[in-house]
Amino acid sequence: MSVAIHCAAPRPRVSCALAAMLAAALFCAARADIVCGTWNMKWFPSGRAEHRAPAAKEAAAFSEAARILSESVAASRSAPGDGVVLFLQELRDASCATGLVSRIGVQGLKVASCSAFRNRDRRLGWQQCAIATTLPVLASGSELWRQSHGAQPPRGYSWALVDGGADGLVACFCVHLKSNYGDVTDLDRMYTWMKRMVCAEQLIAEAPQVRAPDGRRPARFIVAGDFNTDIDAPEFDQEKTVRMFFADGWRDAFEGVSEARRATHPGRGRKYRSSRLDYILLKNWDAPAVRRVFGGSAVSDHDAVFVRVAAGARQRPALPVVPAEEDYEGGGSGAD
User: Fold this and answer.
1) CATH number, domain 32-327
2) How many whole angstroms separate alpha carbon 174 and alpha carbon 159?
3) What is the dihedral of CA 10, 15, 20, 23, to 10 degrees?
4) DSSP conformation class of 94
5) Where are the domains of the chain?
6) Which end of the chain is more exposed for a tag (fewer CB within 10 A), N or C?
7) Phi-psi region of 262 (alpha: psi -120 to 50; beta: other; left: phi over 0)
8) How far is the C-alpha of 86 from the C-alpha of 95, rounded, in Å?
9) 96 phi/psi in degrees, rounded to 5
10) 40, 139, 162, 132: which is closest to 91 by C-alpha?
């Protein structure tokens, strides 16, 4: 006796690799532009060097800083789906970074990395660097600057490797370089310059070494933060910190913008003129579509600096270097 066996047609199976490729393709197609913002927040949230402020004052600082960052992101985005990467300096610790990011109100924004640098006495410092983003984070961390050429820079940098979708992997670095505080003689100033140039040398060498866990390399790079040097000021003519990045193929996000419109540290009467201490440097990107400086906050003596870069920009014609008049709000800058 024969038995007929009826088999259902096999259901098509999609391999894990193919599923991952399809998911990546959908992500790339959906990814919009990326908004980048940097802000030195001046001993946030107390506003005082290694001292806590009354709870009410610190709570007010959180609210005001969150408002500034939320409004800056909204004003810089072309659409709600634009990615966001924030580079924040002078935060007390990781809990302050998390508390601030939770108040900004940008959907999907989370802390990708926050440093925990220690002072020379081994106490945890109160000037940490953090990166927050809405983009998928593949790897992150922080690194100390190394002694080189007889100079030991303070602190280090935080970093995050994010998936920029159409822009490929983007390596992001947040820096807060040695300040000019206490420099009296020419020798003091030269030693400070050397400390900053050592940082530039190390980061230029280390940025291309970042890898995703699966070995993929970043396609694009962003360094942002407080460089504490002003390429527009004659007193820094001999310092090469920022120009070292230019020589390596990086570009200034505010290239072609007038000095007055790209100043980030408002002057203080006759003592200091307004200057530019904060930068967003880009590698393998075209000119940003938007460049904005947001000033007027009591939280910090620095202004917040924002740009928007276009997804897949290298496949598009370069955007005009000089943006429209309305692309600037506030502004100002001096020596820190």
Assistant:
1) 3.60.10.10
2) 6
3) -10
4) H
5) 32-327
6) N
7) alpha
8) 16
9) -65, -40
10) 40
Please identify which residue in the block is written with the tokens 């030269």: 190
Given the structure tokens 């990326």, which residue do they identify? 34
Structure tokens that stand for 263 in this block: 């100043």
Cβ atoms of 171 and 224 within 8 Å: the answer is no
CA distances from residue 104 to 125, 212, 317 in whole angstroms, order as listed: 24, 28, 33
User: Quick check: 128 and 168 in contact, CB under 8 A?
Assistant: no
pTM over 0.70: yes
| Dihedral sign computed on CA atoms, order 293, 61, 90, 182 | positive
pLDDT tens for 61-97 read 999 999 999 999 999 999 999 999 999 999 999 999 9
Backbone angles phi, psi at 262, to 5 degrees: -115, 10
Structure tokens at 271: 């003592």
Integer Cα distance of 69 and 36 in angstroms: 11
Token output for 90: 């002078």
Q: Each residue of 199-256: pLDDT tens digit? A: 999 999 999 999 999 999 999 999 999 999 999 999 999 999 999 999 999 999 999 9
Is the CB of residue 161 less than 8 Å from the CB of residue 139?
yes
Look up residue 39 and give its two tokens.
């802000």
Cβ-based neighbours of 46, under 8 Å, separated by 6 or more: 52, 53, 57, 58, 61, 92
Q: Which of 278, 313, 247, 263 is nearest to 78 (CA)?
A: 313
- Give which of 202, 214, 140 is closest to 177, Cα–Cα: 202
